[in-house]
Design a protein that fits this description.
The protein has 305 residues and is α/β, with parallel strands linked by helices. Helices cover 41% and strands 15% of the residues. The structure holds zinc ion.
Length: 305
């Protein structure tokens, strides 16, 4: 096992993964405000929207309008999630900086999520990477349900490693391992991150955890120790998946930022600003956020005036 490095990148996925499963339709204006607050707190790579069928994911129906309203914040990479070539065409036309493609580790979940079995989803993701490259842009690929499937249960790590190896051939900027339904535990994360790293080096490994069973922050730490260099997180811990029954929110950005900051690993994020943004998001959503840090008092204690 490797030691965690001195820095780790946190990709903010709240505007996409965080919002997509929420029944409350958030306005385009509030989505742009959410992204601006994340940027103000230090986020430099943000999954801003998904380009999917608006009938299936109504929250993302304003993807193009939102990106137009957001503009091109300086120094920020805007990721658009896409599940097929049609979505990739829309995302490129909308002007996103980076495409995020998704391959699914189980056939059943792949068909439910995006109408593709595992190897069809690998082929489609590779085609999306090629389309991004042809347009002079970058793409990354996420392997969904890499640690377990809501329908098929355990996933063979060798299957995930082989998927990663094949996806890497297309030349994405990274391959991510996603615990879409939040079943992973740290020992499993260490083993799979290490195996995939070895299979795709020098391409980096990103990880994506949902905190359904309380292991999200521990998994983020295990992944960093095993050499993952990027962790996805969602402000407030908002999130879920419309096609994965029982999936809870993403690991919370403020909780992961606290973990790394107190462990001497630089994230570039400002905790106080994250918590302020999380409270704002809570007021927009009309409910408390799952994140632990948004509910806790600051530590170390702030000086009394
Ligand atoms: Zn997710």
């Amino acid at each position: 096992m490797q030691h965690a490095g001195k820095t780790i990148e946190i990709v903010e996925v709240g505007p996409r993964d965080g919002l997509q499963n929420e029944a409350l339709l958030v306005s385009t204006t509030d989505k742009v405000e959410l992204i601006r607050r994340c940027i103000a707190a230090g986020a430099r790579r943000i999954e801003v929207a998904s380009f999917v069928n608006p009938r299936k994911v109504p929250q993302m129906a304003d993807a193009e309008a939102m990106i137009t309203a957001l503009g091109r914040p300086v120094g920020v990479t805007r990721i658009g999630l896409v599940l097929n070539l049609r979505g990739a065409e829309r995302a490129l036309a909308a002007g996103v900086d980076q495409l995020g493609a998704v391959a699914v580790a189980s056939d059943t979940f792949g068909v439910r999520n995006q109408g593709q079995d595992t190897w069809q989803s690998v082929a489609e993701a590779k085609a999306i990477v090629a389309m991004a490259q042809a347009a002079g842009r970058v793409a990354q690929v996420t392997i969904a349900a890499a640690f377990g499937c809501p329908f098929e249960g355990e996933i063979d790590p060798a299957r995930v490693t082989e998927m990663a190896r094949q996806l890497a051939e297309a030349g994405p900027c990274e391959v991510a391992l996603a615990d879409t339904i939040g079943v992973a535990v740290p020992v499993q994360v260490s083993a799979l991150v290490s195996a995939v790293r070895a299979a795709i080096a020098p391409l980096p490994v990103r990880v994506h955890f949902h905190d359904t069973r309380g292991t999200g922050v521990a998994n983020a730490w295990a992944a960093a120790k095993a050499g993952a260099v990027t962790v996805d997180a969602s402000l407030g811990g908002l999130g879920g998946c419309p096609f994965a029954p029982g999936a809870a929110g993403n690991v919370a950005t403020e909780d992961v930022a606290y973990l790394f900051a107190r462990s001497g690993v630089e994230t570039g994020l400002d905790l106080a600003k994250l918590i302020e943004a999380s409270h704002w998001l809570s007021s927009v959503m009309g409910k408390a956020m799952p994140a632990s840090l948004a509910k806790a008092v600051p530590f170390p204690p702030q000086a009394q005036p």
